Structures
1.
Amino acid sequence: MFPAAPMAGYDRAITIFSPEGRLYQVEYAYEAVKRGMTALGVKASDGVVLAVEKRSASPLVEGTEKIKKIDDHVGVAFAGLFGDARVLIDQARIYAQTHRLIYGEPIPIELLVKRICDIKQMYTQHGGVRPFGVAFLFAGIDRKGSHLIQTDPGGTYLRCKARAIGAGAQKAIDLFTKEYREDIKIEEAVMLALRGLREAMEEGFSAENIELAKIDIYDKTFKIFTMSEVRELISKL
Amino acid sequence: MFPAAPMAGYDRAITIFSPEGRLYQVEYAYEAVKRGMTALGVKASDGVVLAVEKRSASPLVEGTEKIKKIDDHVGVAFAGLFGDARVLIDQARIYAQTHRLIYGEPIPIELLVKRICDIKQMYTQHGGVRPFGVAFLFAGIDRKGSHLIQTDPGGTYLRCKARAIGAGAQKAIDLFTKEYREDIKIEEAVMLALRGLREAMEEGFSAENIELAKIDIYDKTFKIFTMSEVRELISKL
Amino acid sequence: MFPAAPMAGYDRAITIFSPEGRLYQVEYAYEAVKRGMTALGVKASDGVVLAVEKRSASPLVEGTEKIKKIDDHVGVAFAGLFGDARVLIDQARIYAQTHRLIYGEPIPIELLVKRICDIKQMYTQHGGVRPFGVAFLFAGIDRKGSHLIQTDPGGTYLRCKARAIGAGAQKAIDLFTKEYREDIKIEEAVMLALRGLREAMEEGFSAENIELAKIDIYDKTFKIFTMSEVRELISKL
Amino acid sequence: MFPAAPMAGYDRAITIFSPEGRLYQVEYAYEAVKRGMTALGVKASDGVVLAVEKRSASPLVEGTEKIKKIDDHVGVAFAGLFGDARVLIDQARIYAQTHRLIYGEPIPIELLVKRICDIKQMYTQHGGVRPFGVAFLFAGIDRKGSHLIQTDPGGTYLRCKARAIGAGAQKAIDLFTKEYREDIKIEEAVMLALRGLREAMEEGFSAENIELAKIDIYDKTFKIFTMSEVRELISKL
Amino acid sequence: MFPAAPMAGYDRAITIFSPEGRLYQVEYAYEAVKRGMTALGVKASDGVVLAVEKRSASPLVEGTEKIKKIDDHVGVAFAGLFGDARVLIDQARIYAQTHRLIYGEPIPIELLVKRICDIKQMYTQHGGVRPFGVAFLFAGIDRKGSHLIQTDPGGTYLRCKARAIGAGAQKAIDLFTKEYREDIKIEEAVMLALRGLREAMEEGFSAENIELAKIDIYDKTFKIFTMSEVRELISKL
Amino acid sequence: MFPAAPMAGYDRAITIFSPEGRLYQVEYAYEAVKRGMTALGVKASDGVVLAVEKRSASPLVEGTEKIKKIDDHVGVAFAGLFGDARVLIDQARIYAQTHRLIYGEPIPIELLVKRICDIKQMYTQHGGVRPFGVAFLFAGIDRKGSHLIQTDPGGTYLRCKARAIGAGAQKAIDLFTKEYREDIKIEEAVMLALRGLREAMEEGFSAENIELAKIDIYDKTFKIFTMSEVRELISKL
Amino acid sequence: MFPAAPMAGYDRAITIFSPEGRLYQVEYAYEAVKRGMTALGVKASDGVVLAVEKRSASPLVEGTEKIKKIDDHVGVAFAGLFGDARVLIDQARIYAQTHRLIYGEPIPIELLVKRICDIKQMYTQHGGVRPFGVAFLFAGIDRKGSHLIQTDPGGTYLRCKARAIGAGAQKAIDLFTKEYREDIKIEEAVMLALRGLREAMEEGFSAENIELAKIDIYDKTFKIFTMSEVRELISKL
């Protein structure tokens, strides 16, 4: 713990720049993401898949749901602090509903992501708050097509083809790097996502311990799979 | 006390991330929960049971009640700081009443829990406050069935089958892990809860020193047992 | 004074958790109570008694009154900082009057105590303030019967049968532990309270240096004894 | 100055409790009182006397007046910071005038003192301010009789028979302890006050360097003596 | 990390002056710019060109767009924190739209830049915030002609002929210093910009990894090149 | 500079008491006064004189005026920070004008001084500000006669016969102590003030480097002497 | 960097007094002025001249304009932080326009300067902000004649005959001290200003790298010279 002392000046009170131009609090918040359970997404030519690990610490406790529907055409998976995630997911739902009400159409995915990132950025620049310790993978379909977008605690977002966040992210990314093709179809993408998650989870890969969702260009509706559907899909692996 | 010095930077002013992405103030608040007297819950196939230790430090002082009714269909047990718990319980009652008034129906248990967790989360991210040093076990029944949900100081909640919090939690959990079955009936669940509490309390297990409550799917009403009822139940153990 | 240095991080700015989950500022505030002059209370089967030490530092200065009437049916004794106590007593009187005005009946004792504890709790969780350095013993009678309730600086309260706070509390509690019976009558309770105070005060036990008050179920009115009444009672000891 | 370092944590930012339950900032403010010039008061059976030292640092500068009239029936003497005193004296005058306006009668002395102490207490519990570095001796007459009340920087007040504050307080108190009688008449009390002040001031006791005021039950009016009246009284000592 | 300790006083809480009259937080924020990917601009006699590196960390992630259109007649490239940039770009778009609405004409480029710099300056002088960790290159055309203006984190702006910011800035500037001529035409400027970017990027210079935009005096419209257009231009290098 | 370290706790954030009951920030502010150029005043039996040093650092820069008229019947001289003085002088002029407007008569001098001292006191007790680094000598005539009053940074004021503040104050005070008489006439007082200033200024005593003003009971108007008038008066010394 | 440590207490959070009565933050802000490029002014018997160095760091970047017109009858030159200067110049323009609108006449120069200094002073006394790191030379003509006034970061202003600020100030002041005469005419003053600037700039003295402005009593209009006019004037040196 001793090495913590000299950098003591950069992690107090408000989020400020270190002499190297880094924002330590944002980087530390990202550590909370890295400690979270793995969440991943794969964009197919005709849809997007999300999959997360929701292992429970005990058989007597249900794993926390980590995939949430925001609106009919968009959902989200997250890694990091559950409480922080919930605040932003509630906000995302409000943005989506408000957009529908005012403009009479589903909110464009990137606009939704920007709004969430604006909140995240604000929490990295103003005093009296800490950054959000959570990263999201948004999956949705709008007029411009299908989207898989990652946000990080600093308010940055990245448009992705296949992506994983959380403790097992690197193993899943390694698999995606080898096997992902842009012309992948949604059914294959589901299988690739499951395989990525199997790599990322060191143990306990089973229908009880994961969540799976998809949205495709045919019915444009974000759908979370039931446990029996997941079980069936796993059996095909 | 000396090892406290190097991490001095992470526990001041506001709740901020440590370099490992941890929120020390939230973890320290959880220590307040661990020092509290044991509270536990068991979900049966037809109801939910709550039981708490309410031992008093002196025969001249009554033990503090740690099970509270929120609304007809939901109650709560807690471990941790009494003052902090009371603030949130008052808030929960207001949410429940407001929901009845506006929507003409009992508040869904998970929605109620989310509202309380939103308050808890806010106290972990904004300056000028400290987190709540209390964990809850909510027990209730709504349209979706019966619920046993734990909240922690960080604003996270967990859906549970059988759960214990506070100083003797581990002993009760060990018992539950061995003996809990999902098809347990409410009468058996009451007995299992009492046995769990007997394990958790090192001494003084008696009707005077515990509280017991249940809610079942037959009358859907949260009911705190009288001391003589508890005494009778204990005699059957 | 040297051992104060390592824990320097836990007693600044706002009241925060120590790594063991303790709130040092609240504990330090309790030290202010422990340094205060003794206050005690005894609940009889038909009433409640309060007694306090109000010794003066000099014969040229009157001792500060430490028993205050809140409303006809409830009074309070305190140990700790006089200025802090006054703020909360004023508030208690306002709550009591407001309740009478709105509901047309005396405020229930426990409700009154909860309101005062809500204020106390707030001062332990928000920045820019320190906790109240005072503990109270409320004595009153309402529809549910007679009450003796202690509050502490953290916003916790305890329903008591016989209780003492302040510098000499332990000696009085030792006496109560030996001699208190639940079927005690109010006249005996007055004598037990005086004996407890005589134990607690190391010197100077006399009608000039103490205050005594009672409320019983016959006239349900909080009554502070005059000095001559106290003198007469002491003579009977 | 070195011993100041270890207790550095208790005297910054806001007024907080030390581990022993003390409020250092309030105690330090009291030091400002102890460094002030002596002020004293004597309560007679038929009135109250105030006397203060108002020595000037230079013959070219007039000593600052330290006795102020609040209303016809009440005045005040102070020791400590002049600027702080003035703020509270202005406030006391406003309270007194407002009371007359609303209730059509002079403000009760103890009520007036409580209001001033409420302000003082507030400055010991909230952040962003320091306590008032001043103590007062209020002297007045109302329906309940004559009053001599001392307030200190923490918001506590004491009902007194004879009292002194400031640098020479102990010497005056020693005299009062020996010679004060409760049946003293106002003329004797004036003489006792002057003798007390002569003891307290190490040098320079003369009509130019002191102020003297009284209020008695005959005309119930707070009266500050002129310098020639003081000179005449001193000549009688 | 040890050398950080002595200057610890200059980088906390708010942005304050060091003894040498420097604002460290502003300088540290500029380090965030220097760590960003290269962005550059070249002003021709008949227009302005912007080019940026938008390399992605992974083939599965699209590079973040770093050239944004503000209004028809003005666009911007940036280096530094994406989240910070987005906040200011949104603000710039609002200023531009508001100006059009109120004055019925496009906002003058320098006025737009001043407004953005006013925000940046405010974040260097007031407490509770950190400076923006981003530098911009604004390119636009208004009544006064064509403009290439750089802003830095402190709120300063510079009118430029050819300029580069970010990690590879110096290499591009070296090239510009040798080859830039004021009478350069827009087509040549595009080529010079591409060559500058090729110098600045150590590897990966390709149409996929860069963005290119221009505005010229002929149609006065800010235009971002498509990837195939960029590919074609690169092939001409 | 080393001895500054142990008292580091008493001069930060807000103005707080040191263990000896001193307000260091107020004392440090007084140091700013002591570093200022000398200002002095002499009260005659029939008027008041003010004189100040206004030497310039360079022949190319005019000395700053340090005597200001507040209203027809009152003026002020100051030593300390020019910027701080200006803020309070502006405020004094507003008080004086407002008083004339509301009450139809010139503001009493002591009331004016109290208002300025109330502002000064407030800046010594509340957080987020520093005390004013300036002392004033007010000279004026009202119904009660002529007044020479000094204010200091802490909000205290002193009624004076002859007084000097600033770097050379002691030398002027020494002269006044020897030569001042209460029956001095205004013409003599002018000469005494000039002699005092000559003592206080180590060099450069001349009409160019000083300011002189008076107010007498004959025309009751504050008058600043022209440079030629000052030159003539100096020639008579 | 080591010597910075002991004075660490005086340069944090808000601008406070050091034990010697100095405001370090204001002095450090003045260092920012001293690091700025030279700005100077010369007052003639019939007008005022301003001249500044505006050298650019690179041939590809235009030097920043450092002379700004505030209103027809007044302009300003500055040394220090560009962003800070711009905020105050915008404010000065608003004051000037508002004055014209309300009073129907040009704002008096000294009144304008006072307003700007009032803002500067406020930023040296209140928490949560830092002082402005900029000094100005205001040049203008009003009913009282022509004015050359310098303001510094602390809110002080000086009426000057000839003055220079910034990195090369001393060299220019040395020249002015030798050669300035009060009866100088505006044409000579222009030449003296140019010679002063040539002394102050170590290299690069040329029409491209300087700005020059004047206002005279004949047309009373602040005029910034064009580059060719400057070139011609330089050729006459």
2.
Amino acid sequence: MYDWAKLQQFCEQVFARAGVPRANAAIVAESLVQADLRGVESHGVVRTDIYMKRVEAGRMNPHAEPAVVSERDMVTLLDGSNNFGAVVGTRALDIAMARAKANGASIVGVRGSNHFGTGAYYALKAIEQDLILLVMSNASQTMPPTGGVRPFLGTNPLCVGVPAGQEQPFLLDMATSVVARGKIIVAAQKGEPIPSGWAIDKDGNPTNDAQAALNGSVLPLGGPKGYAISMFIDILSGVLTGAGYGKYVNNMYENWEEPQQVGHFFIAVDVSRFMPVEQFKRRMDDYIRLIKAEPKAQGVEEILIPGELEHRQTLLRKRQGIRLPLKVAMELDAIGQKYGLDVSAAAFGEGSIMGGSIA
Amino acid sequence: MYDWAKLQQFCEQVFARAGVPRANAAIVAESLVQADLRGVESHGVVRTDIYMKRVEAGRMNPHAEPAVVSERDMVTLLDGSNNFGAVVGTRALDIAMARAKANGASIVGVRGSNHFGTGAYYALKAIEQDLILLVMSNASQTMPPTGGVRPFLGTNPLCVGVPAGQEQPFLLDMATSVVARGKIIVAAQKGEPIPSGWAIDKDGNPTNDAQAALNGSVLPLGGPKGYAISMFIDILSGVLTGAGYGKYVNNMYENWEEPQQVGHFFIAVDVSRFMPVEQFKRRMDDYIRLIKAEPKAQGVEEILIPGELEHRQTLLRKRQGIRLPLKVAMELDAIGQKYGLDVSAAAFGEGSIMGGSIA
């Protein structure tokens, strides 16, 4: 097991020693460990290794700050200058939140970015400010269009965060594929098979082999509807912002010649423009309680609100620690050694790499 | 077969004779017939009968104009005053388009509305103005939350329209259910069964009986993801605007005591704030052509862009006419007789109600 705070400190120090300005190193580390805390392993410290490799290869530039291309009224276009996606996304969020407070709502289009972690990382910060946030991003090609056989669209994520009162906030953070490709990456790392219907292999055949799926295509959520949702996210994040789209969004694991050219799209809405915040929160609480009070299907213990499970995981993992797959623990150990840091200082009890047993 | 222009004129005259101001009668008629032209029968003139019944019962008020509740910067809150949804939606769209041109983008939240037809009706008008439009609406309860057994959420539609250059515009207009409930209504009217996986009956059991499905629940698109998407649409359209949400959105076929209390949410974006419109359209054309040029799966003749099929249907049906199910043709005939109008004047050749054969 790993202590979340020490693990976050380890990642922050690694990024800092690799030349990332301290404040930005802290952002990236926080975004990764928050994902592990929420149970979204696919976007957690498992990404540290690839992020470091892209910095070391000069494919990400941690020294160039994101720059505003144009900004008027409530619309801003931001160029990420190929910095870490989490750094670029945080800058875009800060602009979106400030503009929404000033104008009632705001839109920030982003180009020149990289994989920005989870949308939830940004939505949770907006929720703290009583803002509703819609955030989306395109990604490198992993899904075929409906009727196609090879990857064209990314699993372009859609995230929506809404503040509530006494209830947990509404927090949808989904890939537009049947499942997040990261889940398949994790399965491949664990050497586990994947359920049918998740993906097709490179020849377009259904597969339960995680590695074959990674070499093939993840399938869109709900067929043509998921295809269309993924497309409009690519259009807003990429075609409209001047970022890459389709094949022009580069795969961070495979393309070592070019930057990723990822684009994002943020929409922030100030609740108070529609009704007093407290009234809105009471309505959200009522809405959430009505859903949770619905009669349950056989075998269902509880009807959950999007984000509720991840919130509970966070509380649990902050207490009990974060368990990492052996492969990830060993990657972090190697990175630590390279930068004169010891990840085992963040580990405790059995299940840590020091304890040997990881499972 | 029915001539689309004459059918639209018939509907417009019916609404006008029922006391709807001429300009508004024209809007509602155009919205219905456009849906039939696009092949979205579920939102076509099949709705004339229920719209008329609600006006006659005093559950819709065609005489009260929508009123702006608050308007500042780029955020507007509109009260539909319980007018026709298409009238309210058109007013909201006009505000959204004007504000987007002035501010780069705009948001219009709407309460006090009714069933507003297809989102495509609004998106196509925005596309003509080189605007990107996201429009959503909540609806009366037809889908269970994930883990539930009875309807709580509507099949809350999401529509996104994006202009292109020489290619057809991107136009996604989807229900957040596996299929639009209207398709099940049409199946029930035709006395046809529905595919497995579309719906559950009132006891939560899978069913292929269209009527049993209408008495039960339509299932959300892709399970928990569709549940969450439908929820955020309900939150933005209903909880945030002051409209109904969940059980507070009334079923237009079943509740004759109260107005529907439907809410909508419009987001308009001016493409020119991000790059010159012509450059954007070239990028859209490139994007669309890249997708359509993808290798096709076995048996697939063509990879389609969202909205492409409906555009072709429109061209075809404007030439060949609109075929109506006997039940709908007879409803329109009865409505015509009631208001001293003859729908058969819009019919031609076999397949019309005069010709007898409808199939």
